[in-house]
Specification:
CATH class: Mainly Alpha
Distance between the termini: 78 Å
Largest sheet: none
CATH superfamily: Ferritin, core subunit, four-helix bundle
CATH architecture: Up-down Bundle
Number of domains: 1
Helix content: over 70%
Oligomer: single chain
Length: 175
């Protein structure tokens, strides 16, 4: 009696396995794109808010100029991302930063003078390194064509930002 029941159970699981694997694969892809949207939106929020702060608190003209470019460029990418995502069901970028980025912004608010400039440029290098990795990953492995194209098109600007931030960090101004 157990053999027919066991055989039926094995047959049922063998038939269901490919469908389950396909569901899991597409679910993973959707999570990957959704994670990209979340992280990209938070990154832009942080860049904009930190750079708005730098426009008023920085002591170096080079840092202020860099900050102004960051506000302009990241506002543009933020708007582009929102436009792409608005047409997609199930994806919505966050409207507030996560705790990690809020803490970084808090440290920046507490800094002043040359210490502010140093901390801001350090945070910008780290933020842009993370953004370049995030956008590179999405451009290579993203499942959503629109997001993949957005990531690919945004990469050169992010790489330029990283190079500029590294130049500031080394004390050489922006390239």
């Amino acid at each position: 009696m157990r053999s027919p029941l066991l055989a039926a159970a094995l047959l049922a699981s063998a038939v269901a396995a490919p469908a389950l694997a396909q569901t899991m694969a597409s679910g993973t892809a959707a999570v990957s794109d959704a994670t990209f949207v979340k992280k990209a939106a938070i990154s832009d929020m942080f860049e904009i808010q930190a750079s708005q702060l730098a426009q008023t608190k920085a002591t170096s003209a080079d840092v202020k100029n860099f900050a102004s470019k960051m506000v302009t460029d990241h506002t543009k990418t933020s708007d582009q991302l929102k436009s792409i995502v608005s047409a997609k069901s199930g994806m919505k970028p966050p409207t507030t930063m996560d705790a990690q980025h809020k803490a970084l912004l808090g440290k920046l608010k507490a800094a002043s003078g040359a210490n502010f400039d140093t901390l801001y440029t350090q945070q910008q290098v780290q933020a842009h390194q993370q953004a370049v990795m995030l956008f590179t990953s999405e451009s290579q492995t993203g499942k959503d064509t629109d997001l993949k194209n957005f990531a690919s098109q945004s990469l050169p600007t992010l790489q330029q930002h990283l190079s500029m931030a590294q130049g500031l960090q080394k004390g050489g101004g922006t390239p």
